[in-house]
Design brief:
The protein is of the alpha+beta class. The protein has five helices and eight strands, in the order E-H-H-E-E-E-H-E-H-E-E-E-H.
């Protein structure tokens, strides 16, 4: 299994990646096309596809910033979920040796509990910080999420630096900027 950075955005695999992105995340949790192209220009943003034996497995969209990796969006194809591909893909990021940070919804139902259980089994721990997701579209409501990190809770100072970066670079920019 490997991660492949996409640099050509008119390819067939990019279309598969965008289709999976749109199917896997509700509108409030994803960028529109213009915002996706804006962040693709940021050298800290990685739009990677997960492949195994040249087969498209899923996507990992993440930021490498302030000595950590922020896993912003991660999804595998629905037909292969529960077969260990997600855990293997996470190992690729964890092997960097950098702390990995991600957001999840609060656990309120079976789906969110399973998602939390998946990350917990993969070594992620809950952080105590109140966290509002970066807005991906102008006018979005605040969305409070939980922060998980690997291999341990991040220091408050490191979280605060990440959060400032998130607001400055990851969140939607107004068209006037």
């Amino acid at each position: 299994m490997k991660l492949e950075r996409l640099t050509e955005f008119d390819s067939e695999i990019f279309k598969k990646a965008i289709d999976l992105y749109e199917l896997s995340f509700p509108v409030l949790e994803r960028r529109d096309e213009n915002e996706q192209y804006r962040v693709l220009k940021n050298e800290n943003y990685c739009f990677d596809v997960i492949t195994e034996n040249d087969e498209f497995i899923g996507i990992m969209l993440y930021w490498e910033v302030n000595g950590l990796i922020f896993l912003e969006h991660f999804a595998t194809r629905k037909d292969i979920r529960g077969k260990g591909y997600g855990s293997k893909a996470l190992e690729l990021l964890k092997a960097s040796g950098k702390p990995v940070l991600l957001e999840i919804e609060p656990t309120v139902d079976e789906l969110t509990e399973r998602r939390y259980g998946f990350y917990k089994r993969n070594g992620f721990v809950m952080n105590p910080y109140k966290h509002i997701q970066a807005k991906y579209r102008q006018g979005d409501s605040d969305l409070e999420l939980k922060v998980l990190t690997y291999p341990q809770v991040v220091k408050k100072k490191d979280y605060d630096e990440f959060y400032e970066y998130m607001l400055r670079e990851i969140a939607v920019h107004s068209e006037k900027q």
